[in-house]
Amino acid sequence: MNPSAPTIKGLIKIHKPGHPIRPDVNWRNAPAYKLARLLIHQIRQLAPLPHTYNTNNTKDLIYKLKNTPTLPHYTLASLDITNLYTNVPINDTRNIISDTLQQLQLDPQTRQELLRWYDVITQQNYFSNNGEILIQEEGLTMGAPTSSLLAEFFLQHLEHIHKPLLSDKHKIAGYFRYVDDILIIYDSNHSDLHNTLDDFNKIHPKLVFTAEQETESQINFLDITIHRTPTNWKFAIYRKPTFTDTIIPYNSNHPNQHKYATVRFLYNRLKHL
Questions:
Q1: CB-based contact 121:36 (threshold 8 Å)
Q2: Of 57, 135, 142, 258, which is the most exposed, with the fewest CB atoms less than 10 Å away?
């Protein structure tokens, strides 16, 4: 591998108001790429996360919702964390990981070595664009394979502290998070979304939450539409406005496994969901 500076490009979110640009950084040729992969492996082996409030995928979310009671005064809402990776504080996350490794009684030498790896990787906050080297001043490195795991350490630490208090205050009957998307079920007779959102935005000064409330007892979350009835849940597949229904034509020169993959994915999603 010939190391080179990570490159950045922008992906326009044409389905969102104002068409914001999502930065996409390719870190595969970065000097610290292999070290980052090694850190992921070691951390997962030595300090596995509990994932208490996470949902793995849509199928897992449906299973959990079916075991969550539904009542007429319950309301669905989705929360989104704005620009998660660039707002995860590096020092706070380092302290959380250090404390976790210490609580697991990991030997000091191994703990310090892992933290040195952490410092090296999180300091590689640069990328190139049109031959110019740019510096990302705050947050986790965009595109680095470690960023999702480190963000999980930070978020799960905050959830462990604040989620029980928020659930008790706002009567949240269900809380399910997939990366930076959160689905909550709360008692609308006891609290409203505005006050709930205010308290979520007080969790940490770097995290900014936005919220969307259900409309006509249903809400779109991940790739499904969730419909709440007085007695149960109903689900339908949700397609974003950018969905085109376009797949690779059968008579194209692509490998057959590529052509079959899309159809197989659509069939399996219909079957499971």
A1: yes
A2: 135
Interatomic CA distance for residues 226 and 235, integer angstroms: 5
Cα of 100 vs its chain's centroid, Å: 21
- Give me the half-sphere count of Cα atoms (radius 13 Å) on the Cβ side of residue 217: 14
Closest by CA position to 75, among listed 210, 244, 226: 226
Best CA proximity match to 258, nearest among 266, 267, 248? 248
Question: Would you state the structure tokens that stand for residue 83, as one six-digit string?
Answer: 């620009």
Task: Work out whether the CA dihedral 84, 88, 94, 99 comes out positive or negative.
Answer: negative
Q: What is the pTM for the complete model shown?
A: 0.91
pLDDT in tens, the chain (273 residues): 688 899 998 888 877 788 888 888 999 999 999 999 999 999 999 999 999 999 999 999 999 998 888 888 899 999 999 999 999 999 999 999 999 999 999 999 999 999 999 999 999 999 998 889 999 989 999 899 999 999 999 999 999 999 999 999 999 999 999 999 999 999 988 889 999 999 999 999 999 999 999 999 999 999 999 999 888 899 999 988 878 788 888 899 999 999 999 889 889 988 888
Question: What 8-state DSSP symbol labels residue 215?
Answer: B
Query: 87, 122, 104: which is closest to 46 by C-alpha?
Result: 104
Output Rg (C-alpha) for the chain, integer angstroms. 21
